[in-house]
Amino acid sequence: MTETVGTIIKGIGGFYYVKASDKIYECKARGVFRKQKITPMIGDRAEIELIGEKGSIVRILPRSSFLVRPPVANVDTMMLVVAAASPEPNLFLIDKMLVNAEINKIEPAVCINKTDIARREDIAEIYSKAGYKVFCVSAEKHEGTAELMDYLKGKTTAFAGLSGVGKSSLLNIITDDDLETGSVSEKIQRGKHTTRHVELFEMKNGGFVLDTPGFSSLEVEGIKAEDLWQYFPEMANSQNKCRFRGCSHINEPDCFVKEKVESGEMASSRYESYIELYNKLKSVKEWQKK
């Protein structure tokens, strides 16, 4: 019996598939996890005991982050993919997903795909100005994808975005093409209307990626409206700079954030998203937060 540490890349029917070194081992979780009410998650770093090609998960290493939907641990980066056109970018949805990533302590970045159709320097400027890393790529022409792959190297990255933005095409480019059962896009498209398992795909130059279907429909929750500003990087330095203590940055006069919007330091679309999210959080009743 030997011991090693690897990453859980897939879980189906009570079996977990752990990538350790250059091999994938089929493992079962020890019964102790049930007693401790711990469920191994895709993305977990796990210590496994091996007998031949099969093994047992004996310990889950501490998680740096985790998502509830889809259930995945240790995600380093949330790559929000938007199309330059077809479909037209929804800025509020982008901002909502960015806030969700920030809440989950996952570093977000923005990828504008289909730049062979339209350039969209306006969107790139909005998010660069907010402090986010922005990639402008064309999966169709394989333009900008090398820089994207270099950024993702060695990380575990969740790809999020609406259908039609080109996530599948990008995932096919940045992962190995000799996957056991065909291309990533076929795996992602299969069973659109059924519950499917979450799976990490290994990148050609190291690291893992996964698709997060449904992430874009998640609502911002788990925080108070008064704390929302902390999840907008361009507002992070506004504390104690407004005239009124506890400023909501909406109706009060002499507001540092509103001055940033007026001067162009903060994009008006970002500020409008902040107001909409603030009002949604404010409308949630106390009993609904529990």
Protein architecture, described:
The chain has 290 residues and is an alpha/beta fold. It folds into 3 domains: 2-60, Beta Barrel (OB fold (Dihydrolipoamide Acetyltransferase, E2P)); 66-217, P-loop containing nucleotide triphosphate hydrolases (Rossmann fold, 3-Layer(aba) Sandwich); 225-289, Probable gtpase engc, domain 3 (Ribonucleotide Reductase Protein R1, domain 1, Orthogonal Bundle). The protein contains 9 helices and 13 strands. A 6-stranded mixed β-sheet has the order 10-9-8-11-13-12, sandwiched between helices. Strands 1-2-3-5-4 form a 5-stranded mixed β-barrel. Strands 6-7 form a two-stranded antiparallel sheet. A hairpin with a 5-residue loop joins strand 12 (201-202) and strand 13. Helix 2 packs across helix 8. The longest helix is centred in the C-terminal third of the chain and has 16 residues, at 268-283. The radius of gyration is 21 Å and the shape is globular. The N and C termini lie far apart (46 Å). The model is unreliable at 177-195 (pLDDT under 50).
In CATH's first tier, which class of the largest domain applies?
A: Alpha Beta
- State mean pLDDT (0 to 100 scale): 86
Poorly predicted segments: 177-195
Please tally the helical runs, counting DSSP H or I stretches of 4 or more residues. 9
Q: Tell me the β content.
A: 15-25%
SSE string, helix = H, strand = E?
EEEHEEEEEHEHEHEHHEEHHH
β-strand number: 13
The domain count comes to 3
Named CATH topology of the largest domain: Rossmann fold
- Main-sheet strand order equals 10-9-8-11-13-12
The backbone outline, from C-alpha atoms, is globular
Major sheet characteristics: 6 strands, mixed
Q: CATH homologous superfamily of the largest domain, by name?
A: P-loop containing nucleotide triphosphate hydrolases
| CATH architecture field of the largest domain | 3-Layer(aba) Sandwich
SS class = alpha/beta
From the alpha carbons, calculate the radius of gyration and give it in angstroms: 21 Å
Summarize the amount of helix as a percent range. 25-40%
Amino- and carboxy-terminal Cα gap: 46 Å
